[in-house]
Specification:
- β2 and β3 form a beta hairpin.
- Helix content is about 30%, strand content about 30%.
- The strands form 2 sheets. The chain has a 6-stranded antiparallel β-sheet with strand order 1-2-3-10-5-8, with no helix packed on it. A 5-stranded antiparallel β-sheet has the order 7-6-9-4-11, with no helix packed on it.
- The chain is α+β, with helices and mostly antiparallel strands.
- α1 runs antiparallel to α2.
Length: about 190
Amino acid sequence: MTNATVNILRHADYSVTAAASELALPAQGQTSALNSWKALMSSRLALMAFVVLGASGALADDMKMPMNGKDIKWGPAPPFFPKGAEFAVLSGDPSKDGLYVVRLKMPAGYKIPAHNHPTAENVTVVSGNFHIGMGDHLDEKKGIELTSGGYGEAPAKMNHYAWVTSPTIVQVHGQGPFAITYVNSVDDPSTKE
């Protein structure tokens, strides 16, 4: 609820209380108080409806159109990911401050060496077999396998790694800007030709 809506509701509550007090007047003032209360409530409800509908319209203007998976526009993953993955931005701009939602499509056998992020990373598996582990180097004997619907979270600056054993799509969301720092700089694909 916006601050304007909260203020209107508080004001309306105060007005209802004041009108109810007027109703407690002697009999000769009750008809006038009742009419005054009805008029006041009608105008308050109209104003509240206007504010709520206006806020809904503003939110709808900012909302992206819903889409099905088949309508997602995939492109090559940014150069800080190992080659072979595809990438799609669903919401926001991961390179800027603010919320973002992206998807990463990886072929079977794809690996992301140990790395960390400046902000928390939240990963939901859309399809496939996604393995995630915590530590300073990729170790396939450690970690946990997440399947469709699985969820993992890596706090900011925590070293972690991932690999997939089948074609896999994950959805990543968080607070931007999104960046990757590899634990071992030789693992950073953006520095390779």
